[in-house]
Amino acid sequence: MPQPSLPPIADIQALTDALHRAGALTAGRVASVTVEASYPTVLSHIFRLRPAYDGAASDAPATLILKAGLLDRPGGPWFAGRMEVAFYAEVGAATPAGLTPRCFDAHWDQATGAWHLLLEDLTDSHQIATAWPVPPSIADSERIVRTRARFQAAWWDDPRLGTTVGTWPDAAAAAQGMRRLAGQYAAFADALGDRLSAERRQLYERVFEQAERLGARARARRHMTIIQGDSHVWNCFLTRSGALDDARLFDWDAWRIDVGSDDLAYMMALHWYPDLRQRAETRLLHAFHDELLARGVQGYDRRALQDDYRLSTLWQIMTPVWHHAVGIPPVIWWNNLERIHLAAGDLGCRELLAAS
Fold first, then answer.
1. What is the pLDDT of residues 82-104, one digit of tens each?
2. Angstrom distances, CA of residue 315 to CA of 304, 327, 341
3. Is 343 in a helix, a strand, or coil?
4. Widest distance between CA atoms in the chain
5. How many CB atoms lie within 10 A of CB 8?
6. Fewer beta carbons below 10 Å: N end or C end of the chain?
7. Given 3.20.20.140, 1.10.3730.10, 3.30.200.20, 1.10.238.10, which CATH number is that of 8-120?
8. How many Cβ atoms sit within 10 Å of the Cβ of residue 212?
9. What number of other Cβ atoms are within 10 A of residue 176's Cβ?
10. 249-288: per-residue pLDDT in tens?
């Protein structure tokens, strides 16, 4: 297959300028660029670049990852890239080092939807724990969870949330979102027919009926942070050396301000079958909470985390509905549907819908 053209940022002068701006290149310059690897993902194209330098470049990166939009659909149904570029512009640069890949340049073109990220290459030092869909070991899962807690603690109730970083959804936007989701659910339920049981249909109906009350936790704007959104275990790099405190979270196109437990419910309740989840869940929630406390989070006890995790699990029953609506393959959303309803049952999430 013919290789796609490199985005303009890979031009030697543009690359030189970007690395100078980022402080990754001093007096030297990029003399040439070699593409060492190139492959598409669902919403982007990844290039591994090896620059050659002239001049003072001893500290310049030997390789770079260039992530860019697909040429045939620069925006796509998710406006791919826009939120991830915003993440590195608003959040990544203000986050303590060592939690996300370093970003040297980020751009999203509002007119065309074209975008790119020029990122630190972690290929030689880090790896994804397992190949999808096999979950990691419990020990590696704890490394991921503790990394997530360190990231969330850095933004926990930060005064910049909703002002200079991210936005708080207002009541009108939340109501509009629920109306849109209700329409997506109607199409989802119609498509599934009798494969969606009466009991599960009733659960969805109760959540829609009580959505405003259930949303009060987030509207309180207390014990809130930045979450990754698409927080499955394959969006985290672990060190090849086995170091416990140098994992990196990547793929931030779904980030938002929200309750931190949403990322945990997405990782475990949505993606893990009962045997592993039941054996690992409590240990990982303990580890997450311990790490929050160690990183300075105050006034958020273990019971509060458990309550949030149950509510987050209940909300996650909507994720397969949304995945169906935007065209995610059934091999993903069907398995997620079964797992999240099993988790909601195990955690007694229906009790959250009891009349108050």
1. 999 999 999 999 999 999 999 99
2. 17, 20, 11
3. helix
4. 71
5. 13
6. N
7. 3.30.200.20
8. 13
9. 12
10. 999 999 999 999 999 999 999 999 999 999 999 999 999 9
